[in-house]
Amino acid sequence: MAVVTANARGVSPRGSRPPAPGAGGRSEESWKGHIIRELKHRDLSQHAMFQDLIRFYTQLLEKTSLTKGLLSSAARRPPAGGAPLSSLQQQSIQLKKTTGELAYQVVELTQQIKIKDGVLEEQHARLLQEQRCLSRVSDAHQELQAQVEQVQGQNTVLKVEYDTLLEQQRAAEAKLRQETVRGEELLAKVMKRKNQAAARMNSHNERRSRAREATQAAARSKVNLDRSAVHPLSSTSPSSGFSNSSSAPSSRSTSPKNEKRDASTERKPMRLVRSASVTSPRILTSIKELFDRKRRGHSVCSQEEDLVSPVRICVSARVPARALQVLDAHEQDINAVRFSSSSDLLATGGTDKVIKLWEVRAGLLTHRGTLDGSTEGITCIEFDPMGFRILAASYSKAAMLWQLGDSVPKVTLTGHSRKVTAARFSSITHQVVTGSADGTIRLWDLRRAACLQSRNVAKYCSDLVCSENCIISGHYDGQIRAWDSRVASCVQVFPAQGKVTSLDLSSDHCQLLSCCRDDCLQLFDLRRWSNERVTFRADGFKCGSDSTKAVISPDCCYLAAGSADGAVYIWNVSTGKLETRLPDKHSSSISAVSWSLSGEYFVSVDKSKRAVLWSDM
Length: 617
What we know:
- By secondary structure, the chain is of the alpha+beta class.
- Helix content is 41%, strand content 27%.
- It contains eight helices and 28 strands.
- The chain has helices at 2-8, 21-46, 51-76, 82-220, 231-235, 238-252, 256-267, 276-298, and strands at residues 322-328, 334-339, 345-350, 355-361, 364-371, 378-383, 389-394, 398-403, 411-414, 420-425, 431-436, 440-445, 450-456, 461-467, 470-475, 479-484, 489-495, 500-505, 511-516, 520-525, 533-536, 550-552, 558-562, 568-572, 578-582, 590-595, 602-606, 610-615.
- The strands form seven sheets. Strands 1-28-27-26 form a four-stranded antiparallel β-sheet, with no helix packed on it. Strands 2-3-4-5 form a four-stranded antiparallel β-sheet, with no helix packed on it. The chain has a four-stranded antiparallel β-sheet with strand order 6-7-8-9, with no helix packed on it.
- The radius of gyration is 61 Å and the shape is elongated.
- The termini are far apart.
């Protein structure tokens, strides 16, 4: 190729003479043949791809052949003169130069063809890769299409099921409306029957009261006839008396017994009218048994409930110092605890829907029984003054009354629209008071199981206590309200310092204790009926919940409450300072505490099912 390029530029190797015609022809034929063979080989492989190049190269060959013919004819023809030969030589040199340039262009084009072949192969490889990727994408598209069709089928099935369920729901709602109407009708019928039964019970109770009054009047009155009232009757008419005495023996003269009876009659004065004091006990007993049977058959009260409650006075309460017993009293949180009036019985209630009774003896709590019947958790417990009955409030919007020997409630008081937070025995026999989260306070008659009064405060009632003709209630609006039960009106409002969680009344009914969410206890003097109060606080004391209970000791000298840190705090009323702190026995917030009326024992319960019995022994 270097030789071809030099000849094309008109430079002769080894001198300036032009090469011989024969030698130049052989060299031209050799590289032309080589080029032709290469081009033919490429034409076989890439004929369709390089048509333009082939056509251009063919024209080049034609020009080369023409040049070769001209050179050969010039070599055979002798030169006539010097000028034409030089022109032909110049043309030959020009043609060689053009041929060299064309050959150089062919080489360059060959290199470009190789580059394009590489690019083409790379593009072909990429094309194959893209085709494989397209194939995979197509397969994924088909799979997704199949999944879409499957999901559409499932959606169709779900749509059918949804339509079916919608129709069932509509039918159920229609049935629910019908059942609601039916339930309202049944409730109206039940209320009507209850009213009728209450009216009959009232009538029976009135008859019983009248009969009791009559029997008591008959027992007090005695008809005694004096012996001096008998003799005048026999002496005022001797003839008639004689005739009577003579006529009687005439018919019984043959009987010796009659003679003995006459003799005894003569020795002992005759009692013409029998005293009522002799027969009245049997009559009164029969009447009393008759009415007792009726009362036991139709009344919700028992004979023990009519007894007058004894007045128990604690001279000095013991300040608890150590734990006598720690036990898990319930299966869930414990919300309420209360001692009976005799101090030998303890009741606890919690969210496990039961009330458990514990016998207190020798510093230990022994399980005595369980009171069932509540459908929700217990919020408050109260013993009656005699200790025969237990009253409880619950989350089931009702209050229940148990007889101490029965495990099921004897009376259920319903009427509140939300949970009942407090239930207390009233100072009037057979009446109780309940407070609820619905903001109402209700007065109930246990004999009829009916509501006598309802007071709507429209504020959450957390707790209440009862005194003579007075009901005191605490509310979440930070107010303590005193009500006159005779006129059903609010007579006094005591502002507190936060949500009122509990109330407690001292044994002499002269002091009122309130526990608030602002982590303090407040003591009011009810004899003054003023807003003055004594506030008790302590470092570390924190009210643990909206229903934390605080109590006054039976001797009115101490206050006690449980804290969120599981410790019991006891304050001295006279000094206003913290008397003692009892830690380490509770692992969670203390919900309620209770002091026995004897002042000997103290109990605390918490949210982790634990009850602790304390004393100073």
